Amino acid sequence: MSNARLVKGIGVSAMMAAMALGSSYAMAVDGPLRGNVRVVIGSSSTGGDTYQNASIVVDELSEKLDLNMKVDAVGVSAAYNALQRDPRGNTLMIFHDQSYLGHLYGVQGYEDPFENYIIGPTIAINPGNAYLVPKDSPYQTLDDIIAAVGEGETVRVAIQPGGVSEIGYTALKNAIRILHPGAEENLVAVNTGSQSDKNQLLFDDQADLINGSVQANEQYTRLPEDDQKAMRFVWLTARHDTLAQANEEGLGQTDRETLLQFAEPNVQVTMGDDQNFAFDKEFFFLYNKDMDPAIVEQIDTALEEIYAEGEIQETQKRSFFIPDFMASSESQEYLRDKAERYEGIIESLQE
Amino acid sequence: MMDILSQLDFTFFLLASIGTLIGIIFGAIPGMTATMAVAVCLPLTYALGLEHGLSLLLGLYVGGISGGMVPAVLLNIPGTPSSITTTFDGYPMAQKGEGERALRVCVVASLVGGLISAAVLFLFAPLLAEFSIKFSYVEKFLIILLALTVIASMSNNMLVGIFSGAIGVWLSLIGTYSLSDGGNGNTRLMFDFMEPYLFEGFSLLPVLIGIFGISTILLEAESGVKSSLTGQKIKIGKEGGFSLSIFKGRLTNLVRSSFIGTFVGMLPGVGGSAASVLAYTQEKNLSRDSSEMGKGAPQGLIASESANNALTGGALIPLLSLGIPGDSTTAVLIGAFTLQGIQVGPLFIPENTDTWYIMMVALVAANIVMFLLMFYAIKYIARVVLVPKYLLYPLIVMMCVVGAYAINYGIMFDVWTLMIFGVLGYLVQKVGLEVAPLIIGFILGSSAEVYFVKSLESFGTLSIFFTKSPIAVVLWGLIAASVIFSIVMGLKSRTRRQLEMSQ
């Protein structure tokens, strides 16, 4: 047996692996951003909304800029590390409100994104952030829950701590504190991880209310009531006006009209002073602090053109996302305001 | 129905075959996994469309899981974490010159495991999904505990084995109890300066490759490089022959292990490596003669490989009937559906019957292609061991380094992990500790912790582990049987050794 043949074999395999892994080096003819661009996301799941959103936008952007771009689901800390290492602009990041909420909740690994990175343009909203109860739950509405907790009943809420999943819980607790001072202690968080863990807690009767999403839980809400897995929406945290922009068909077999019943103003979670809590989960770009401002502008312009063409909105809406483009300068200001508002809520509860 | 047939064109099967081939290559290269292969090719599903994309991805999945057997048998490096138990008997067989035979046993066992799990998936998916949600944290913890009992029966000296296993568990706890598991995200078991590196603990694959691969190479290097070709000892062709008669009397093992693999695959969060470890334990405990296991017995290979391929069908059960991925690869696979805007949940199968049938065809096709590709290519693959070691080992080290660097998308510390555990694996063997229990402790330790803590968090009392459900009671029975069995076996072999000494 010839070693030569073997070496050749190994060579061919290596080449195939290289072909599968790498890709040809593309060069944009003009513009400061050149070469291959890796877009890391703050989630390690390819089944989640961050990956889906990033894929839609990066796909269009890659075509518009004539660059080779790829989304990598690497998770929060790996994504920040990768972004920090690369001021050239060949590593970009897409993430959502978790980036500053994590910091506000004091989660390890989350620095202040407004200090340490450049906030880029916003791209979309997922209006699907939801809270669900078992279908046979005694609580028909969120008001029932608030009232029950006020009367001293313990209600267990399954959330993933330190972020978008927790903000609704925080607001609910705050509302109970305002309406039934002292009773907020009866709303208890059950800290857990993935969506499947939260679902499992509901199946096991270890939680009375779980955080979920329209995308992940809609099918469960259509199961018959005697099914152990059947659930019911009680609250969608999105703003009414955001949700109203979704396709009329909604998602799966649940139309927009039905979903709107679970959002404000039908469902009220007070923040005091006649203000109502609502939360839109927004996705946006994050850049390395030292990245060339010309690249910021290049991406802004490209996205502006893409959104002006109007096709991307259709794709986003088909997946139950709300198109939401704001160029960098606008989005920086907007997100900073948003962060300050939620900082107030979080702090008031930690007092 | 016509829709389905029109999808099953030449391209469909070609993609499944290409997927399987690339998957095998990914699986066979230490440091590259089925999960990576699927992640890399995921964006292609945009261009290919859902059905064709799925056939490619399922090919990658099946190929990637199967490919892990090659380095496991030939080089003592588990190509994927789930092929770790394949090294226990595969490498000793390769050292005896039976590498080719060992690989053929693995391939046949993989095919059977894959097909049995596909059949189970097809016939019972919704039913089993219903059953799988009966497993709460408590039962999942007990399953992992059961897998951990293999440590006792696998080690040469039980106390040393358990001690090594405890070190493994301890190593797995370094890092944070992750926020995404509902922990507090604080680091532990380290000094402050290590935090930037060890925030998420040691990554599994660099540890595996280091402790098995690099340490094996160090041990070999210590004994010096001889100019002779190692291959001269290898029996190729008739002498190293394989016939299906190896499987005679092993059908129970084959079927049992396939079902164990399917079953573990279907429990989200228990993890792929637990499947082969559990199947290996059960074969060890239940077979009439398990004295050769760990020294080069085909029955160990059958258990390990049929179970890890059965994982594929098993992990698809909760994915397709609950929308919950059963293992890390199906967690990436779910992206193929979301990218196309298709919801995967409890109503996926009834609402997407066409896609469901097409997936089944792709899964079966991928298994058959895997078998054909590997069974006939083994002759050539097995000759890797003919390459002189002074050429082969540097190549392997290089590939391991590249793989370790790539596994988390370019983290240099993973390369250091590889080296640290390479040296550690070498030292551990020098001081007489046992590597296999250590690594099993490492793999299962962190999920054991999470489920243990969560059980206590949810129920607030230790007694819940015994009283939660009939399933828990059955699992305790199995754990007790496994422990008693290892003690009896340990005592037996001690008396035998004493007898031999006195003679």
Automatic annotation (TrEMBL), chain A:
**What does UniProt give as the signal peptide span?**
1-28
- Protein's UniProt keywords contain Signal: yes
Q: Name the domain of life.
A: Bacteria
Please name the SUPFAM superfamilies in this protein's record.
Periplasmic binding protein-like II (SSF53850)
Q: Which UniProt keywords apply?
A: Receptor, Signal
Asked whether the keyword Isomerase is assigned, the reply is no
* Protein name (record): Tripartite-type tricarboxylate transporter, receptor component TctC
Native source species? Halomonas cupida
Automatic annotation (TrEMBL), chain B:
Q: Where are the transmembrane segments?
A: 12-33, 53-75, 102-125, 131-151, 158-177, 197-219, 258-280, 356-378, 390-407, 413-428, 435-453, 473-491
Q: Which UniProt keywords apply?
A: Membrane, Transmembrane, Transmembrane helix
Q: For the DUF112 domain, which residue ranges apply?
A: 14-440
One of its Pfam families is TctA
Known InterPro entries for this protein? DUF112_TM
At the top level, the lineage of the source is Bacteria
Query: What's the protein name?
Result: C4-dicarboxylate ABC transporter permease
Its lineage reads: Bacteria, Pseudomonadati, Pseudomonadota, Gammaproteobacteria, Oceanospirillales
